[in-house]
Write the structure tokens for this entry.
Amino acid sequence: MTDAPTDAPAEALVDGHRPLEIPPGVEDVDLEQAFGRLLFRASLLGSKLTEQKQAARAEQRELLGILVEVDDALAALGLDRELVALGRGAGLEATRRRLLGQLAKARVRPMRLEGMTADPDLTEIVGTEARSGVAPETVVRTVVTGFFWGDEVLRRAQVVVAAPESEPHPDPYPEPAVSEPETPEVAETVETVEAFETTEATEAVKPETPETPEADDAPEAATPVTRAQPKAAPPRARRRAKAVAEQARQTKRKK
């Protein structure tokens, strides 16, 4: 009669699975320190991944900006009369539509700003136009199309906005301004000039004294004496008075 073995072999299967082998020296490992090292390595890997994503996004943004400039070039070529005459206009337009379709897949879409108030974050104002009934700073024409990239601004648009309404024309018949009272010096100067003019004019028109008839002569009928009317002051005196008065006013303003 044979005795059954008392020790089961190490490679015996337990529930159909081979038991895991424990590496040597595992019992001496500090689990807290090892877990800290793993967290540090994970943080370094996360930082590198973030930097790579930012670099890739910057390169993608630059590439999309170049494609937008290509769209500008295609639009300009589509307006060339020589190319249109040669029958290239349709091909250029088809190429541009295909390019815009690829940009749309990358979430790049053109801005539609006509009729909206110019936003400094979206637009760059390059000119103004007078438009009746349109509020100032309203976009009336787009010179260079702007583009969105998702929620970001890929390129600002260059636009022309409505100019502010012109100010009303001044009244052609303004009310006369009230002159300030003259100072005593100016008034005295004007009175002196007027007195001088009056004296000069009086001397110029002073009537002659009629001669008294002699007693021996026979009385004759009295001849009516006509008094001379005072004449206006000569132009030279008037000019002199105006010059003196103007000089006095200028002296007052300087003071």
DSSP finds five helices and six strands in the chain. Helices lie at 31-77, 81-85, 89-105, 184-204, 235-254. Residues 182-202+233-255 form one domain. The CA atoms of residues 78 and 203 lie 93 Å apart.
